[in-house]
Amino acid sequence: MQLNEKITDLLQVFKTKVLENVTFVNSFLRVLTLGLFVFGAISILNLKTEYSLKQFYPMNHPLLMQEEKLRALFQSEKNLSLLLVLKTENGTSWLMDSNFELLQQIHSSFSELSTLKSVVSMSSIQGASNTGDEISVGNIFDKTTLSERKKIAKSHPFVTPHLLTSDESATLMVLSLQSGTPVEIYNYTQSLKEHFTTNYPNISVEFGGLPVVQADLSVLLKKELFRSLGFGFILFIFGLFLVYKRARAILPVFITLVFVNIVILGSLAAFNVSLNVLLTTLPILISLDAISLVMHIQSHFQKTKNIWLTYRQLFWENLLAVVTTGMGFLMLQASSSTLIKNYGFIVGISSFAVWFLVHLALLPLTQIFLDCEFRNWLHKPAYWTLWSIRHRRPVLFGSVFIFLFGFYSLTQINWNTRILDDLPKNQSTRITTEFIDNRFGGTLEANFVVTQKNSWQKPDALKKLDAAVNQIRRLDQVGSVVSVTDFYKSMASESRRRLPASAGELAEKNFMFSLSSINPIDHFISADQKNALLQIRYKDVPSNSIQSAKVSILSILKKSFPNSVVSFFGIGTQFHSINQEISKALVFNFWHALLAIGLLLAFVFRSWRWALLACLPNLIPPLILFIFLNINQVAVKPSVAIIFSVAIGLAFTNTVYILGRVMKLQKQNNYTSYFPLKRALIEEANPCLLATTLVVLGFVVFLFSYFGMNRMFGQYMILSVVAALFGDLIFLPSFLYQFRKYFLSLILIFLITTATPSSGLANEAVDLLKKSQTLLSSKDDTAIVTMRIFEADGSKKERQLVLKRKFENHKNHVLVKIKKPIDQKGAGLLSVVEKDSEQQWIYLPSSKQVRRFVSKNKQEGVLGSELSPQDLDLTTVQSAKAELVKKAKVGGINVTLISVKSTSNQTRYSKAVLWIDQKLSLPVRIEYFGSKGHALKRIDFQNYRAFNGVFRAQKIIIKNLENKRGTDLLLSDIKVNSGLSDNDFTQRALSKD
């Protein structure tokens, strides 16, 4: 008796502990559910979206690797430019005086912004003119009349069509950004719209170009996401009214959908994953999984009234349904595209997350919403599905037609796409970009590089290149072409745009270009002079037309230069080729997903016969897709091709439930001689039909998308889902019933063939500057200067010159004679500055003439270096206010920092900070600053030495902090106060060797 009492007590304690543990587990899971929801709700506020035309590109594709090398060769940067189309009121000409002055004003205002790397417009085109007696370098439109501007616009190679339409009513302005994310670019364009509306109300401004399109659509994607969520929930709720008798029963499904979406999307935001155009489909896909799981769980819960028992009974069945869907997406990892890999991984993992989150959410919800009764039609026997068995021969005949025509259609796929087709047709940036494409010489960058053993700096080679360029311009697909020959032609007279006829004339033109701080020749001829660049812009035409143009261009170049090597880079040469590779891989390799799911089912079903049988009807959706793509000649791109893998994943859901029911009935009733096929269909067909209906409703959302690719995705996913229903409820029963004895062998045959100082300090500063100036002042100087110019990419070029300078009676003489490079040897420049006037002459040895030289660019670097005349101009310091900033010790040297603010309007620098060595009273560094307070340039002075009591730095290092270019000046054979006379600074002295 006592023993029985002890056993009873022990059982009671055990029962109490189990109940306490269950209570604890339930409480813990409720807290976990609430915690995940709060985490997701907070994180989702930081959800980001992004859009890129290169979104499907593989990371290490050979074309992309080649682009990096070729861009470095020509110091070419990737495009981050905003294209502004400016249209005048009433369509008047931009060349009219009032309109042109307004364009100059707009250009000038943008040029002062530190956020921009450069500004290009018609009003900023630089060039050179040669009148025989005078050579003028600077803005080609400076001080011109309307008729003169019209002549220049008509004849100059860079005006029309690049920057001005043929009717002169629209002009293009190019703003190159320093950097910017899509959201930053979008916000910047919005601020520009307000700027033009406020300051230039009579001008119509439109924004285009690929970076603007991408930025605009990145923002649109977020609207797309929330729009699809809203439409999706409305359609799902409508569909759920077909399922439940009472509206109250819809609440647990709705709450679960909200919970699952918030947690998964919030998790992506927490891991800083941006939603792209593919991932905007994620909410619908996970909602479909969630609804299917909720309905199956609720259906069984109504029978057991025990949620844990329901979970146990449906564990493998529900997990398998989710796994097959996830496998279809995870097989996208085989793609070479990083975006598609990430999409497959995220959706695949999200499928498993849905399984966990649905079970987690329904634990408390089933206790609150106990009565979730389904409508009667769901429980009624689905006798209608037996129609396929009764008419199995016509069904099988039609299925054979699908198989044959489907595989034939696979060979007739249309791969010809256009870049802008995926973008919303009425989007303003797309309309503007198409306008630019049609009126400003194309939008798709396609650069071709011709490499030969000999130098391109020869008149004969340039002549051949120009002839090839003219042939390329005549191709219909080509909007515009720019080559080095255009620059040489631009320096010729307006009436006769011709190339240099001799090596001497060519050297003269090269010397003229070298006077600019940015030598355009360097961007079209490589440093070793063996590579020539052709900048071509294609129109946005179908990919087969682009490919035809590419072949024609390669043929023209190879014919013109038979011993050369031609390579290419740019979006126009990459986009279609790379996207076709990815599309073909997705289309032809969808069977990878089929094989993976088949192997999984073979393990789960413990029968390879059942696994093969499950795969057979799921070939129908992709074959139906092939047929419709062929009939409608839809251009297949990655966003379309990905449907095949997605369709395979979703298609298996109903197959698993039907064959799972057959196997379960067979096991329960010990059927060994035949399949309980009819009973399984009668029991499972209505739930399958309902599941398909809900899936279709989910994909209907995409039919209202802003994006053409998403609308197409929706259309063809609906088609594939309906095709999968045909395969599972019509083809599969017919096939099984007709070939129930021989289905295995038939399947085998088929599958095998298939990112403010005090005034005292001011006086001290002025006194220190005066002392420094006394130590540096001289009457004349002579030196040999070795000039080393370093480009941003690390490449360098070297010049050697003789410099003579004389300063007396407020008159400054400077004479420069070039010694190296050899092709420019003997060329010279003479400058005489007296008060506010400046006169310059240039000597070119090939013509042995001294001609007047007029430079309109006072701020340009000397001989292509980073040293501008203003950097070391004494008049700049004299027209300035000096203030002492601070005293410090830098690098073991005690220095005094003096701020010098310019009062002159002739300099781009707002101030300069001089670092004066306190011991030597000599400047060791000068830093120049712009109007926004940002550093523009730094000059270091090293190795001071006294010559006749005057100090000179033997090394000067100049660094441009904006474009990262640099110049080193090495001074040798220095002579100070050697007694130079005015006769050493005449035109005759300039022409002497």
- Biggest β-sheet description: 15 strands, mixed
In the CATH classification, which architecture of the largest domain applies?
Up-down Bundle
Please, what is the CATH homologous superfamily of the largest domain? Multidrug efflux transporter AcrB transmembrane domain
User: Main sheet: which strands, in order across?
Assistant: 3-4-16-15-14-13-12-11-23-22-21-20-19-18-17
- The counted number of beta strands is 23
The outline comes out as: elongated
The residue-averaged pLDDT reads 78
Helix run count: 29
What is the count of structural domains? 4
Helix content: 40-55%
Spatial separation of the terminal alpha carbons: 130 Å
Q: Into which percentage range does the β-strand content fall? A: 15-25%
Q: Kindly identify the CATH topology of the largest domain.
A: Multidrug efflux transporter AcrB transmembrane fold
Coarse structural class: alpha+beta
Broad CATH class of the largest domain:
Mainly Alpha
C-alpha-based Rg, rounded: 38 Å
Low-confidence segments, given as residue ranges, are 743-759
Describe the secondary structure blueprint for this structure.
Elements: H1 2-43, H2 62-73, E1 81-87, H3 97-111, E2 116-120, E3 126-130, E4 134-139, H4 146-155, E5 170-177, H5 182-199, E6 204-208, H6 210-240, H7 250-270, H8 282-304, H9 307-330, H10 338-368, H11 376-379, H12 387-390, H13 392-410, H14 428-439, E7 444-451, H15 459-473, E8 478-482, H16 484-490, H17 503-514, E9 531-538, H18 543-560, E10 565-569, H19 571-588, H20 591-605, H21 608-615, H22 620-632, H23 638-668, H24 677-700, H25 708-738, H26 743-752, H27 759-776, E11 780-790, E12 796-808, E13 811-820, E14 828-834, E15 837-844, E16 849-855, H28 874-878, E17 880-890, E18 893-902, E19 911-917, E20 922-929, E21 935-947, E22 950-960, E23 966-976, H29 987-991
Parallel strand pairs: 4-16
Antiparallel strand pairs: 1-5, 1-6, 2-5, 3-4, 7-9, 7-10, 8-9, 11-12, 11-23, 12-13, 13-14, 14-15, 15-16, 17-18, 18-19, 19-20, 20-21, 21-22, 22-23
Helix pairs in contact: 1-7, 1-10, 5-6, 6-24, 7-8, 7-10, 8-9, 8-10, 8-24, 9-10, 9-20, 9-23, 13-22, 13-25, 15-18, 18-19, 19-23, 20-21, 20-23, 22-25, 23-24, 23-25, 24-25
